[in-house]
Amino acid sequence: MGDSAIHALAGGVGGGISMALTYPLVNLSTRAAVATKKSDMTLVQAIKKTIHDEGLSGLYAGLGSSLVGIVFSNSVYYERGLTPQAFYEETRSKILRRRPAGSTSSALTTGEGILAGLIAGTVTTLVTNPVWTVQAYQSTRGVTNESGKKEKPTASSALKAILKQDGIKGLWRGIGPALILVINPVIQYTTFERLVSAVLTWRAKRSGTTSVAGRGSLTDWDFFILGALSKLVATGVTYPYLVVKSRLQAATHKYKSSITAVIQILKTEGISGLYAGIGPKLLQSALTAAFMFVAQRRIFELVKSLVVAAQQKKAAALRA
To answer: Mind listing the pLDDT tens digit for each residue in 211-234?
Structure first.
């Protein structure tokens, strides 16, 4: 198993764990983003209201679709591991290998980080948009069961409803703003690389050494904090288009295009409409990214050690 495949596996598992831990924040943020009537409730009040109205399961409406989306986004869907995490790591490795001999920095430049992020994000967005469309529908719609109680649709019923309403093209609702949002991981990974470079350089100067240590010298807390900070920056910059994407995917508003959606939101709701639900989203994004960077690193190291041990055992058996 090559490093790209291990990165893909680690990214998928790490992403799934992170999403499961923070999903109620994703759910509440999506609902707030598509709601025309704004609520003054705090995050705690929104959680209590959801549990009161829908039970604990209401906080996890659409979790299954989200787990499929995040694991699929961060794990292997082509034989060669073409995923955000694997793509990014593979591109990063190739860029570093092409550097002149003697180069010691393990951090990408701004341009290199942008290129790696664009490659990873564009492919993933095109492939996984249907999953997030189903998730948005599940999170924001309700159906009445036989007992007359409102409940959230299942992934299969949401998929059937989307196909019935708009056909196969309905699964790619919001693809315009989704592709624009490819800049989110670009900003995230570029910011992460810059933060890593700054931390390593600062520590080298503080210790009085002339060489900068590699990323392997960073602790789990370093990855946790830097991952959270980089995602905070990316989400804060791109959030208005995330609102537009959520509304188009949920199909709760009839907008002709992303541009008309932005204009209509500004006209009817003001600038605050473009930032609806940003509180729980910022918290969720930061925690998810922080958990993912740490989990991905540890899972990669574990799987890598198991692969190396298996290879050594096989080599020893052949020599015997």
So the answer is: 666 777 788 888 888 888 888 888
